[in-house]
């Protein structure tokens, strides 16, 4: 097997993820394509991840791609996570991951409806859910776009309550509204549109998929073909990586992962004793890059691209990740993480290095921090999932 060293893997990050100055993206779509998709669980991440890869990027440009040109689309995907994907690639994600998630989530919702006494038994609860879904979809079509509250006014059954964790100290009785809308979105029938508020808002209007994008999410792809396409895209951006890396990132079973790797004729390579994979013809070293630094936001796709992170993260996981595996804001030098950053109430970007990176790299990081302070222009971004170092830097 061809051996691919850690230095080569780090160089590929700079080039393929559009982080090195000589390799940056031309627009938000190209930025998303460079990492397959952008994480969108935290709405701020989308804009910050684009800005880290597109020189001169502004929030308005990313919003234009999302809501006017609609060349990017917000959707549920791998690991039941919300992403922003290039619209032309959305059908691949839908067939490779989201359709399966929709089936599992429907069973779970029917179970919760039955437990709440809505329908009486699973069969009746399933019929009740289908009726509410159709009524909600019709109401949304008539409105063109709508908020969850507006749809609840049109379809009062959306205000039915579930009984979650009954008898527990954390018991709750949430409305079924968000679960029904989640289900319709998972099945590709509706999409998340403009936010209700600023670019930091996590609340969105909803729209019928076929109204938002002509033809909706397109024709259904055979699931095996879609998984092969998704594996190919991941290898092109994140390869070399192990089967475990791809399995974790995609949310597939190990069997599905191996089948997808076989379908794209992935080539085995040696990753310091572990078996990794690249696309055919991608075994050779990338062209050398000059030195580069980058400040990436919480949940950026680059640090979240692999399960095994030691080769670019080192010993810094306790400071830079929360307890459930979500990464906070990070500082990169030549393909490895060396520190983190945060914002106090005043809004400027503060950073802390976790190792000595030398005077030249430190100076470059200071310049990048100042650029981010200027770009944010007083807007304070508090990550939805906060790392210990980010919390510390954001005090005061």
TrEMBL record:
<dbReference type="InterPro" id="IPR009351">
    <property type="entry name" value="AlkZ-like"/>
</dbReference>
<dbReference type="Pfam" id="PF06224">
    <property type="entry name" value="AlkZ-like"/>
</dbReference>
<dbReference type="GO" id="GO:0003677">
    <property type="term" value="F:DNA binding"/>
</dbReference>
<protein>
    <submittedName>
        <fullName>Winged helix DNA-binding domain-containing protein</fullName>
    </submittedName>
</protein>
<keyword id="KW-0238">DNA-binding</keyword>
């Amino acid at each position: 097997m061809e051996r691919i060293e850690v230095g080569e893997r780090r160089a590929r990050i700079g080039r393929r993820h559009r982080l090195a100055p000589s390799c940056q993206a031309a627009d938000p779509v190209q930025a998303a394509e460079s990492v397959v998709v952008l994480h969108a669980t935290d709405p701020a991440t989308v804009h910050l991840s684009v800005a880290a890869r597109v020189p001169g990027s502004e929030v308005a440009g990313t919003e234009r791609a999302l809501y006017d040109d609609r060349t990017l689309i917000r959707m549920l995907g791998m690991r039941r996570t919300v992403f922003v994907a290039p619209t032309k690639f959305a059908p691949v994600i839908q067939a490779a991951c989201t359709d399966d998630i929709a089936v599992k989530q429907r069973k779970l919702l029917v179970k919760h409806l039955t437990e709440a006494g809505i329908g009486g038994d699973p069969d009746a609860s399933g019929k009740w859910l289908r009726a509410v879904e159709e009524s909600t979809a019709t109401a949304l079509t008539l409105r063109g776009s709508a908020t969850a509250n507006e749809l609840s006014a049109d379809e009062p059954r959306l205000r039915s309550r579930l009984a979650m964790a009954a008898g527990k100290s954390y018991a709750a009785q949430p409305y079924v509204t968000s679960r029904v809308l989640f289900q319709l979105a998972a099945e590709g029938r509706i999409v998340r549109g403009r936010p209700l508020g600023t670019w930091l808002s996590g609340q969105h209007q909803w729209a019928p998929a076929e109204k938002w994008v002509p033809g909706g999410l397109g024709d259904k792809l055979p699931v095996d073909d879609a998984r092969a396409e998704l594996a190919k895209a991941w290898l092109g951006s994140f390869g070399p990586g192990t089967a475990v890396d791809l399995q974790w990132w995609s949310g597939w079973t190990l069997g599905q992962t191996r089948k997808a790797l076989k379908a794209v004729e992935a080539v085995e390579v040696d990753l310091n004793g572990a078996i990794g994979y690249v696309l055919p013809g991608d075994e050779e070293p990338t062209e050398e890059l000059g030195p580069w630094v980058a400040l990436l936001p919480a949940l950026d796709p680059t640090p979240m691209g692999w399960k095994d992170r030691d080769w670019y993260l080192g010993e810094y996981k306790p400071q830079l990740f929360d307890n459930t595996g979500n990464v906070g804001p990070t500082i990169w030098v030549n393909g490895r993480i060396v520190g983190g950053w945060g914002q106090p109430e005043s809004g400027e970007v503060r950073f802390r290095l976790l190792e000595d990176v030398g005077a030249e790299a430190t100076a470059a990081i200071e310049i990048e921090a100042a650029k981010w302070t200027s770009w944010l222009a007083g807007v304070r971004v508090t990550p939805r999932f906060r790392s210990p170092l980010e919390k510390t830097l954001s005090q005061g």
